[in-house]
Structures are given as structure tokens and as C-alpha cells.
Amino acid sequence: MFIAHLPSGYLLTVALAKRLHQVPLPWLMSAGILGALAPDFDMAYFYLVDQRQTHHHQYPSHWPLCWLALCAAALIWRYLAPHSRGAVLAWLFGLGGILHLLLDSLVGDIWWLAPFIDQPYALFSVPALYQPWWLNFIVHWSFAVELAIAGCALLLYRRRSCPSRPASKH
Ligand SMILES: [Zn+2]
């Protein structure tokens, strides 16, 4: 997934914002969007430290278990401290991470059962027909899904930024 993570975090946050109204919207937006991007922050380690030796989806930052554990910990935190905004933000951040892995799983390998089972899962595969490698993803139908997610987020953003005024009688 190339361009859909940020807009997917925006859509996730908008979808949940009314239920989480006790936390200011900018904080929610930051948590939801950062969570949706966060698993790919491991690219820094991939390029700068690991020298591309390991598929970055094999790092703990792309393990569903880590993100599910974060969400579970946030829910326990919320249970113990019902008015904690930090718990809400941590939960939304974790949810963004899970959404990231779900979207990655469309055409990218995700080790859903890591670290217990070393087996990647992807819903669809992208045939390696062109060079450079990323061109294969751009011309694959799954990129239309990414564009649709980005388009939906953009439309929603514009509608929320410029709400239409009620029609005047004069
Ligand atoms: Zn990713």
C-alpha cells in the first residue's frame, strides 16, 4: 500500500470521532492518522540499519499481535481510568495500526500469526512484470482501491471543511 494509509487513518478517525467526543478532534486526528502510518516507520530501520536484509513486514512493527496488544492495553487503561484521554488516544492509535496491516494484507505479505508461525498471508499477489518493482503495484488494480480510499477521504475532508449553507429564501 502506497498512498492509502494516511487517508485511511483520516476516514477511521472521522468514523469514530463522535463516539470519542471527550477528546479534542485534533488530538484524535493525530492519533488515528499516526497509527495508520506508524507500522511503516520501520522503513528507517530497514534502509539505515538492516540494509534491506529482512522484509520490513517481518519486523514487530508489522506484527498484528503488537497492535492488538496495544489496543487491549488501552482498553484496560480506559477501564481502570474511565476519564483518561490518553487511553482513548492509545486505543485509536492501535486501531490505526491494525487498519494499516489490513490494508497491507490486500496485496502485501503480512505475518498475521507472528511470532508463533512464520507464514506470510496476502489476499492477492502482484505479478512482477516491470522494473522498477513499484511500477507493478501502480499498474495493478489494487492501486485503484488506494485511489478510491484517498478520493473518499479528500471528498469527506472538503465537505467537512466547507459545510454547505442552508438555502436562503431570498
Ligand atoms: Zn506497512
From TrEMBL:
Gene Ontology MF: a single term: hydrolase activity
Sequence intervals crossing the membrane: 27-49, 61-80, 86-103, 137-157
For this protein, the record's InterPro entries field holds:
YdjM-like
What UniProt keywords apply to this chain's record, in alphabetical order? Hydrolase, Membrane, Transmembrane, Transmembrane helix
- Asked if the Swiss-Prot or TrEMBL record annotates the protein with the keyword Transmembrane, the reply is yes
Respond yes or no to whether keyword Hydrolase is given for this record: yes
What top-level branch of life does the organism fall under? Bacteria
Q: What is this protein called?
A: Metal-dependent hydrolase
